[in-house]
Amino acid sequence: MKLKSKRKELIYWAVLLNQKGFVTARSGNISLKVAKDKILITSHDSYLGYLREDEILLVNLEGEILEGEKEITSEKKLHLDIHKKFKDINVILHAHPPFTIAFFHYFDKLDIFSFEAKFYLGSIKVIPQDTPIVIDTAPILEALDTSNIVVLKNHGIISVGKKFKEAFSLIELLEEQAKVNILMKDKGYYIGEDIEDTPEVKKLLQQSESKRFKLLSKEHIDRLIELVNSDEEAQTLGRKYDLTCTLAVKNQDTNDTVRFHYKQGKIIKVDNNDNAEFVIIGKTEILKKIFNREIDPFVASTQGKVKTKGDFSKMSRWYPVLVRTFKLWEEAPVE
Question: How far is Cα 128 from Cα 151, in angstroms, rounded to an integer?
Fold first, then answer.
């Protein structure tokens, strides 16, 4: 285990967080998994912009210091609980990006304007925070099930990933969108209500909640086909963008697969072959969250919560019709 090189990597990203203004003075903390049961974590009261190697401690998942003389960060419970629950997460960044903090102090919902930000951020979860140090990690752990970045209201953000670049980029994107939102509101632009908040859609969602399906069962698939093929908007978009392809959804836990054959947006055939132009592969828990409106399929892909196969340039070309298709999926929630 080359701890010296890992410490240098951690220092590089700590300094970058400071240079970008995402942490200032002695705020923020970082951890990096270096073995199954060991992490490197910043010490209490360290200055990330001028972080030294002796301020990075090696600890086990119980918080016992294995190497280092300093005191562990006061947010150790937050880091340890996340590492214990999410085995695939290697990097945790706890930062305080100012525009993000300011925006969520006054507003509850962030409007995302760029396609890239939509792909990577999805719907931002905001957790109330009443204390300077996170005491109750349960709401954060629950939020991280569906998103790799979470806002702690009036406190900061938690961003996670397999690599530093993944976690850092989410902070950059969120801070950019917070700036844009503040600018738009400052200029007096009205940001309209989300379609999900309209009375019509709320009524449909309430109706759909009364019926839940077994994931990828015949009844579930029949309902998905009915929703797509009977939806005027989906069919119009399918013809406009010529959505003619095969799209498969595979359950990683059971190996159950459903392949949809689309012709200009209409589903003309369904089988169980996973040899498709586009494949979404995920565990049961994540697939359920996708069908139950808890995570966007595109965001699940970019944040690594599902695996995908296929030509992304084609997927981008068909983005409008796929967005509508995935929206319709949500009207067939699973149990």
Answer: 9
